[in-house]
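FIELD: query
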Amino acid sequence: MSFLWAIIAGLIIGLLAKLVIPGRQPIPLWLTILLGIVGGIAGNALASAFGVRDTGGIDWIRHVLQIGVAALLIGLVSPMWARRHA
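FIELD: result
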């Protein structure tokens, strides 16, 4: 069941990351989900390193870190994907 939740979280994080980046990102949905999952895991690791992974209430800092890492990854991968498939 955790695998399904990772896919759902990756989809949400990846789509939010694509909204943060200006312009169009010509990557497929499966790659958006994959980069969202990686961004979520890396964002959790950064939040743990900064000591803000578990806070009282909603963990906004952790979520911002997850979306930020995913946006960075999408920003790096998107031009390579576009060149490869042009």
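FIELD: remark
The mean pLDDT is 91.
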